Amino acid sequence: MDRVALFFWLWVLFLAVNVMWALAQAVVASAFGARPLAVRIGYGPQLVAWRMAGIGWSLHPITLGSSASFVPEQDDASPEPPLKSRLLKLPPPLHALALAVPWYVQIGVAMACLGPAEGFHQFTEGFPAVFNVAALPGRVERFVGLLREGELVRAWGIMSARMAALNLLPIPSLAGGYLMLLPWRDKSPTWVRPVAAVLLAVSLVWAAWVASLFVRAIL
């Protein structure tokens, strides 16, 4: 498989993970009575937009993440207090499930692609793998090796498991962080914002480094 094809299939795998998350998020939240108003798949300029099931969807070229909006739009000049997220109207247990279940779906995808035992193992191994920076270059090389050999289903399973593990870490900007802060969902403690800013900066540096590892492995 040539370099262009490798980059293309890597993009497709990230897209597949994000589409599965977006669909699961929309279905689960809607089932609990908190249908998202908009779902954004990827980052960057908008490629295409459409409406489905009463939700505004949009696709963007950088498929490294997705987001769902639950806050109704409000005119900036409105004297009314800011509108709250629809998720805040849910009881805390349902709010927690709405955040966590879409990532549990990714674990299910990993189990379907790799088998139940290996899929769950890849998920649990994903937590320490984030912090084992010395081993990351080798892991990235092996993952790119799967793409070179055309093992796309296996690669999808591994990526789904690892992305689920990453997003369930207790970091404020990730699903795990939101779950951790649910007891203070109406008003976050004052320490949350500076801690979240520091962790976000560290996460961006880590993500940029991992992206460079993928580029080097492919080139």
Account of the protein in words:
- It is a multi-pass membrane protein.
- The chain crosses the membrane at residues 94-114, 164-184, 196-215.
- It is found in: Membrane.
- InterPro entries: Peptidase_M50 (IPR008915).
- It is a single chain.
- 26% of the residues are buried.
- The chain is an alpha+beta fold and 219 residues long.
- It is built from seven helices and four strands, in the order H-E-E-E-E-H-H-H-H-H-H.
- The mean pLDDT is 88.
- The chain is globular.
- 59% of the residues lie in helices and 11% in strands.
- The protein has one domain (3-218).
Descriptive key words:
about 220 residues, alpha+beta
What is the helix content? 55-70%
Radius of gyration: 18 Å
Name the helix and strand elements from N-terminus to C-terminus, one letter apiece: HEEEEHHHHHH
Q: How many runs of DSSP E, i.e. beta strands?
A: 4
Structural domains: how many: 1
* Mean pLDDT value: 88
User: If strands are numbered along the chain, what order do they take across the biggest sheet?
Assistant: 2-3-1-4
**Largest β-sheet summary:** 4 strands, mixed
- Described by the principal axes of the CA atoms, the overall outline is globular
Distance between the termini: 12 Å
Beta-strand share of residues:
5-15%
Structural class, by secondary structure, is alpha+beta
H/I helix tally: 7
Q: Point out poorly predicted stretches.
A: none
Membrane topology: Multi-pass membrane protein
Organism: Myxococcus llanfairpwllgwyngyllgogerychwyrndrobwllllantysiliogogogochensis
Protein name: Peptidase M50 domain-containing protein
Family: Belongs to the peptidase M50B family.
